[in-house]
Amino acid sequence: MSYEHDDILQAVYRVILERKANPSEQSYTASLIRKGNDKILKKLGEEATELVIAGKGGEREEIVYEAADLFFHSLVLLGFHDIPLDAVYDELRRRFGVSGIAEKQSRPIE
Ligand SMILES: N=c1c2ncn([C@@H]3O[C@H](COP(=O)(O)OP(=O)(O)OP(=O)(O)O)[C@@H](O)[C@H]3O)c2ncn1[C@@H]1O[C@H](COP(=O)(O)O)[C@@H](O)[C@H]1O
After folding, report:
1. Dihedral of the CA atoms 44, 84, 36, 18 (nearest 10)?
2. 25-29, 39-43, 92-96, 99-103: least confident range
3. How many distinct structural domains can be found in the chain?
4. Cα Rg for the chain, rounded, in angstroms?
5. How does the average pLDDT of the chain come out, rounded?
6. pTM score
7. Which of 40, 46, 42, 43 is nearest to 20 (CA)?
8. Residue 110: inside a domain
């Protein structure tokens, strides 16, 4: 089966929810979710660091590989907390076309 670029995140996210609902021994996702929030966060931290290192190295293939790992583990965190991927899409849509500098200036003063 092939997916449009913007559908693959949804497709992977659906698999993550499926693994959460029906965990199997063979599933990396199920084993990570079983280990809980802290383990997922630890993996996310590691994957983020690996992407930073890849970015520093500047090798395109490495950056792509590590970015995919970080995307995947971010989806696992969303799935663990039952946050639909659409919530992130909606937030990105809300920001679309708004300059990051303008957005920051519009925030209430803390
Ligand atoms: N996209 C991914 C994906 N990206 C990365 N990974 C796994 O994430 C793990 C991270 O790699 P590391 O070497 O850092 O971790 P590790 O040393 O194996 O694990 P730890 O002992 O550190 O926890 C590897 O086992 C990768 O295979 C993924 N595992 C699954 N998916 C997707 O999730 C689907 C379901 O996978 P399962 O749950 O395994 O069936 C797959 O079909 C894919 O679509």
Report:
1. -110
2. 99-103
3. 1
4. 16
5. 93
6. 0.90
7. 40
8. no
Output the CA 28–ligand 1 centroid distance in Å.
5
Who contacts 48 (Cβ-Cβ below 8 Å, separation ≥6)?
70
CATH number, domain containing residue 78: 1.10.287.1080
Distance CA 92, CA 109 (A): 23
**Is the CB–ligand 1 distance for residue 70 below 6 Å?**
no
Tokens of 39: 């383990």
pLDDT band with cut points at 50, 70 and 90 for residue 74: very high
Which one-letter amino acid corresponds to residue 66?
A: E
Q: Is 74 in the pocket of ligand 1 (CB under 6 A)?
A: no
Asked whether residue 46 is domain-assigned, the answer is yes
Residue 78 lies in a domain: yes
Residue 81 lies in a domain: yes
| Distance from the alpha carbon of residue 101 to the mean position of ligand 1, in angstroms | 36
Q: Which residues of 69-91 are buried (b: 16+ CB within 10 A; e: fewer)?
A: bbebbbbbbbbbeeeebeeeeee
